[in-house]
Structures
1.
Amino acid sequence: MSLLEVTNLGISFGGLRAVDEFNISIDKGQLYGLIGPNGAGKTTVFNMLTGIYKPTDGKIFLDGVDITGKRTAEINKAGIARTFQNIRLFGDQSVLDNVKIGLHNSFEYSTATGIFRLPKYFATEKKMDERALEILSVFGLDKDADVLASNLPYGKQRQLEIARALATNPKLLLLDEPAAGMNPNETKDLMNTIALIRKEFDVTILLIEHDMKLVSGICEKLTVLNFGRVLSQGETSTVLNDPEVIKAYLGE
Amino acid sequence: MKKINKLALFANKSNQRLFTTILVILVLYVLMTILDGTGNLSSLMKGLLVPVCAYSLVAVGLNLCVGYLGELSLGHAGFMCVGAFSSAFFSKAFVGIIPDVPRFILSLLIGTALAALFGFLIAIPVLRLSGDYLAIVTLAFGEIIKNVINVLYVGVDSQGLHFSMKDMMSLGMEPGGKIIINGAQGVTGTPRQSTFTISVVLLLLAIVITYNFVNSRTGRAVKAIRDNQIAAETVGLPITKYKLIAFTLSAAIAGVGGVLYAHNISSLTATTNTFGYNMSIMILVYVVLGGIGSFSGSIIAATILTLLPEMLRGLSNYRMLIYSVVLIMLMLFNWAPGILKWREAHGIKNFKSILKSKNTKEVQ
């Protein structure tokens, strides 16, 4: 059975049909790409999958569980984490704390324990620190643990966002244009990082990307969106050679 | 093992700042007590020691709301008011029935709990709003609390409690009954139990609690919601829950300030200057001038701005003039870019690192 099963998903904003009859089926462990021209509705699909927008029609199943219309926080607990096209870090907190916020639901102690610093506070905080540093070290960010998140250079901010998303221990990770604003070298590093986290964290990945080198390099399957509708879907090589896709997006 | 733990604790930057703050307060406390003991403290100054602590507490509470929850509240004098009147009510009603010390402790708990309850109830509708709307609604809530207390008459006699919102006569009291809250005249004759020592202990306790809260799992979540609500939701944080917790704690601390205030004054009334918007704005001034997000700053600002008008009394007509100049200078010290640079060069840490980091974010 597939990990993510989306059927006939659609959303209207007033008279505008932003996404219509969107279907996708992602198997466990897959690296899936969502591409298409600007304004095609890719980020809107992400926003529906994470509950930021409530879909007008259709169903979303994660691991067999219906998560359609649930709250964002609940969907995260169910197993979907994401990053944003315009980076959304907790800028006034340290790199370490950003990841620890991601660990919030995995390591618990009550507010009173925190206020009165009971023994459990120290024990849990220590475990959280260790786990957070472990995640950061995968990205080579452990050296910057004490830096304020907003003071990180752009590329590291993108990586920190992925680290924070992974800290919530997701089954499915949604990456919204992870290579945006990166130079070819950074993009290459990013491809390696994505391959690494797929192995290390045993996570399925759905990503939006415009960088065709990255898409053709790492994605196993693709869905192409155009004007809110699926234009083409299937194996990466087949889709990229689809004449419709070439005409609408890639250019002849 | 314990020793290593403590060392690690001290190495932490925010802990260091906490210890400095506590140390400074303790030194000031000892200094004031010595001055008082040797008769070098004017009665005016002496009378201000407890109010300074009370206002500091409310400012610390408001700073939690403004600096960490990121929501502007203009109604914190209302929570102070709830704490003041409920505890004064309890103390006066049980004078002679419960011994002094346990009665004060109970009234402190009741005042704090009721302020927290009001904070919680008000937060439910209010935290659905943000920015200017939230400020306006909290302002209104503060005024409502003040005005309701102004028309509230409560008395006690052998038949129990009597309430009225009309006048004293309609209470229908037996002769010999005791009026506790007398409308606009408020509560008179509350036992004056707020000593400087108790005030300082409570202030220290409030600082430790807020510091611990801010640096705990819950506090991190609250700050995350402040920094970016959508991102906070996508990492699985229940937004409403943490906003409620932070706002309630903030109101509770303001309530403690109210309890101290009420037990230091012979006639407790709810006027614009004591619990109305004037006081709410005054407390906001302490928070902003002391530095948003800095608890020690709030206390320093509350202390200076409470003592200043009294210390300048000798200058009579020029008093308010100098007061306003000091306000402007404090503002410059905290916000002017040139002075910020100077402070940084001389190692005077400023709370505005937050502001600077925001600017860098925009550049990138």
2.
Amino acid sequence: MTVVDVQTTRLLAGGIQGDHVALAPHRAIHGDLRPMTQAALAAAAANVHLLGRGGAAFPVATKLAAVEAGPRVEVVVNGSESEPASRKDRTLMTLVPHLVVDGALLVARALRTSRVTIAVHDRAAYASLAVALDERRRAEPHRESVDVRLQPGRFVGGEVRAVLNGLDGRAPVPPGRRTLPTIRGLHGSPTFASNVETFAQLALLGSLGPQAFASVGDPLERGTTLLTLVGAVPAPGVVEVPTGVSIDALLGPGDGPVLIGGYHGRWVSDAHGLRVTRPLLRDARVPLNAGVIARLPTSGCALAEVSAVTTWLAGQSAGQCGPCLFGTNAVARDVAELLAGRTAPQVKARLEGLIRRGACAHPDGTAAFVASALASMSEEIAAHGNGRGCGRPYLGVLPLGGAR
Amino acid sequence: MRLDVDWTRCDGHGLCALLLSENIVEDVDGYPILIGSDVAPQTLRHARRAVATCPALALRLEGDASARS
């Protein structure tokens, strides 16, 4: 079984040819948008165990039920997708923008508000949403205001509370004090904020109903999920698969190191037996995060890939929390030392110093990425110990953002 | 009661580690490491003094009505 056999196109239906699905074909596939009450939408989300798709995998039903509905409520679609290896959110916004807008309007109507904001970092996604909203103004006007905002961004700028700060005109960094957006979010109003894919899944749930939605996928998390597959895999790029598929099927045959959960994720020496179901992966201590799964080719230097991403991660620290600013840079230098065949005696202590010592998940995620790499690549590190390297080139398989 | 550091405010002045050595030590860069965030009753006086002395207003004692939070 290969990834081609396990793909199930529901979110991305009609968009596979690389062309934006216009409103008429969108309606032909998904039907009209039918309003649901807050209670009904939360019950449907609970029924299929829908979990947020941005990375934290918070139960959507709980978040929906936590918002006190009314005209002050803000609905925020987080389309910032600041992780360079992840392409799933911009793929959704670019190929099926009407599904994303349907999801946002479904939530807004359930929460009895007309205030919707979609925050994006990617210009193609912005353009596609603008075209889609223009199409709706003519063919299917809605009373809600849908504000698409192009936000500048770095990795931590995609964290939902950083996005809210940015939309409010403040620096797009996570706040120091823990606040729940559902209580006090955009403009200080109760806010339902979630990832683009979460909204698309909600639109699909509204259109299919819980029973048909749950016709595929794992009982712990029904339906499909989007993944971005990177590196030495049979089908690199964004795929939509039912939850519960084995990671082996996605990776195909091969031997290189496997990264699950992207740049805040974990390297595993053996992905055998792991399945793409968020609760199972969380229990196995390899959270899926935003759905990036990568395998490095054995022809390249894995430690150089790890070092390049670690340096990039250090550069993405917002610089507002000392342990993260100094700690991520120290860890990046340590990994570079190992790559150069020298030792890094402080690296363990430095990694521990990143745990739960920041305003957001960046230091913890960086520590998980590096600690799991060091644990699973001992042969690789030993091969560099002579100072002459492993003899394999740095291929740059793991993308590092840059201009886009 | 629990200690909490607002990491966006903390500048590593280090006074808390001096005043509340029962709960806080400094890391190599001078930032606090909490040794257990629960404050024992006999340590509460030291904890309140550390909170009140933090120049960056970064240290808080959660659930303490009598101290600045």
